[in-house]
Automatic annotation (TrEMBL):
UniProt-listed SUPFAM superfamilies: FAD/NAD(P)-binding domain
InterPro entries hit by this protein: FAD/NAD-bd_sf, FAD/NAD-binding_dom, NDH-2
Keywords: FAD, Flavoprotein, NAD, Oxidoreductase, Signal
Organism: Caballeronia fortuita
Family: Belongs to the NADH dehydrogenase family.
The organism's place on the tree of life at top rank: Bacteria
Name of the protein in its database record: FAD-dependent pyridine nucleotide-disulfide oxidoreductase
A Pfam family annotated for this UniProt entry: Pyr_redox_2
Signal peptide residues on this chain, from the entry's feature table: 1-21
Gene3D superfamilies linked to this entry: 3.50.50.100
The UniProt record lists the keyword Cell cycle: no
GO terms assigned for molecular function: NADH dehydrogenase activity
């Protein structure tokens, strides 16, 4: 009887999980283990690039690579995971319900932007979290010129001064001027509740970030949180009113809600605790990877971040190990001790750091060239040829970008 590895999610971790599992099964010449992947559509959304222009086109097709590697794509959305009977309830692309069984499950459903219950936030704030949301923001900015000239029309507020907020803020001045005219008096303001911009990035790259944002004309309000949003702007916790026709929310993400259906320990972000092989602790049939996994990267106490950099290698490891589990082969423990960051700073350039202390190694145009390679080459799927795809899915191939 054929057995099935079921991967939920076609993001970076899900795609690489499926390819890595198929690779090991192929190496053993087995045709009695199916790798199936469920996702709403057969595309990899290039989420790390959604702060850029042309967001609607930030998708990479996966149909051909799945076909060449023998991964069965199932179009639909998982509604319920039944761990006790190794089944999932799903709704297919036509809205019809069905049930799919599995022998081993890989949960790779990623994360979503966290939107707290702030008055007006859901109705009036934009985001760059998903392709459709980033495309809606782009269309909104493109249409601003049709509105009367005003301070609010010419102002964009980015709520959240973390990685995504900084990358978005650095892009916006040029995009606003492209929409409103080169001589438009535009304002771009970051609102960050911490006392420093880029609080999670640490002190290492901060001087570079500050220099770049200042040169681009970006302002910031620190030590204040957003307390309400409306169609004409927002109010902060220290009572400041900022008039703005455009508010972009970037403040934090949470793991997929499907993690709550796995009877296991989760961290404050909703990520499932996994062992070094990425099996969910206490649930032998389920592996978690990417943004839904609270996974140690090394023996020094560091854990994977919700980032493309970690998701790609987490996916390769989870896919290999879930297949090894069914094949009776020894696993390859997940390990990713090298950590880097490359933060896009718009027309100014970028900043590249190494290590968890984020020591700056490169900045300006040189770092921008590296960031461009990362965003346009390294994070994309491999070619659709079977041999090329399997070579790229090797869990011992460490990707640090």
């Amino acid at each position: 009887m054929s057995r099935r590895i079921l991967v939920i999610g076609a993001g970076f971790a899900g795609m690489w999980s499926a390819l890595s599992a198929a690779r090991l099964i192929d190496q053993h010449g087995r045709n009695d283990i199916e790798v199936a992947l469920i996702a709403p559509e057969p595309h990899l959304h290039m989420r790390p690039r959604l702060y850029e222009e042309n967001a609607a086109g930030m998708k990479a097709p996966l149909t051909d690579i799945f076909a060449s590697t023998g991964v069965r794509f199932v179009q639909g959305t998982v509604d319920r995971i039944h761990v006790e009977r190794n089944e999932v309830d799903m709704t297919d692309a036509h809205g019809a319900p069905s049930t799919l069984n599995y022998d081993k499950l890989v949960l790779a459903t990623g994360s979503r932007l966290f939107r707290p219950q702030i008055p007006g936030l859901a109705q009036h704030a934009f985001s760059v979290d998903q392709v459709d949301e980033a495309a809606a923001l782009e269309a909104h900015i493109g249409g601003l010129a049709a509105n009367p000239d005003s301070i609010a029309r010419n102002t964009v507020v980015i709520a959240g001064g973390g990685f995504t907020g900084i990358e978005t803020a650095a892009e916006i001045p040029a995009r606003l001027r492209a929409a409103l005219g080169a001589n438009a008096d535009v304002r771009v303001i970051i609102v960050e509740r911490d006392k420093e911009v880029g609080p999670d990035l640490g002190a290492g790259p901060r001087p570079v970030i500050v220099e770049a944002l200042k040169s681009l004309g970006v302002q910031w309000r620190l030590g204040a949180a957003v307390t309400s949003v409306d169609a004409n702007g927002l109010t902060t916790s220290d009572g400041e009113r900022i008039d703005a026709s455009t508010v972009i929310w970037t403040a934090g993400v949470r793991a997929s809600a499907l993690t709550a259906q796995i009877p296991a320990e989760r961290d404050a972000l909703g990520r499932l605790h996994v062992d070094r092989n990425l099996r969910v602790r206490g649930v032998d049939t389920v592996y978690a990877t990417g943004d839904v996994a609270y996974a140690a990267t090394d023996d020094e106490g560091n854990h994977a971040l919700m980032s493309c950099q970690h998701a790609m290698n987490l996916g390769r490891s989870a896919g290999h190990n879930v297949a090894a589990d069914l094949l009776g082969e020894p696993p390859i423990p997940y390990s990713q001790p090298k950590y880097v960051t490359c933060l896009d700073l718009g027309p100014w350039g970028a900043v590249y750091t190494e290590g968890w202390e984020r020591e700056v190694k490169m900045s300006g145009a040189q770092a921008k060239a590296l960031k461009t390679r990362i965003n346009t080459e390294w994070i994309y799927p491999p070619g659709t040829g079977r041999a090329e795809a399997f070579a790229a899915a090797d869990p011992l191939r460490v990707v640090v970008a």
